[in-house]
Amino acid sequence: MFIGDLVAATGLGHDTLRWYEKIGLIPPPPRDRGGRRVYPGETLAWIAFLGRLKSTGMGIAEMRVYAALRAQGDVTAAARRELLERHRERVRAAIAALGENLAVLDDKIEIYRTIEAAAPCPTPEIQP
Questions:
Q1: How far, in Å, CA of 45 to CA of 100, rounded?
Q2: How many Cβ atoms sit within 10 Å of the Cβ of residue 39?
Q3: Cα–Cα 20 to 30 A to 6, which of 26, 61, 103, 105?
Q4: pTM value surpassing 0.85
Q5: Which domains, and CATH codes, for the chain?
């Protein structure tokens, strides 16, 4: 698939894909006779995984470490697992914090509902 196809499939821009390639997040693809990048099909799944890492708060530097380990193959399976386990713990902590924040918001909303329910209804003015 060409870069335009990858842009359409991932929603990432041309510049972003080229930058990912430049910093080592995606391996440089082979090129056709016209010099156009030809990305293998598995690039889509890899970019989707990178998107998950990013959306869960993993920084680019750590993603680059993971990508470099991945490029070395199965000999780095333990290191990749450990990196993902550390990240998973950070994600779990963030989820717990969000849960606590949500509970505070729920409590505050309930307080306002109680106040609203107890407030006397305004009496409409009677016009002569």
A1: 33
A2: 22
A3: 61
A4: no
A5: 3-118 (1.10.1660.10)
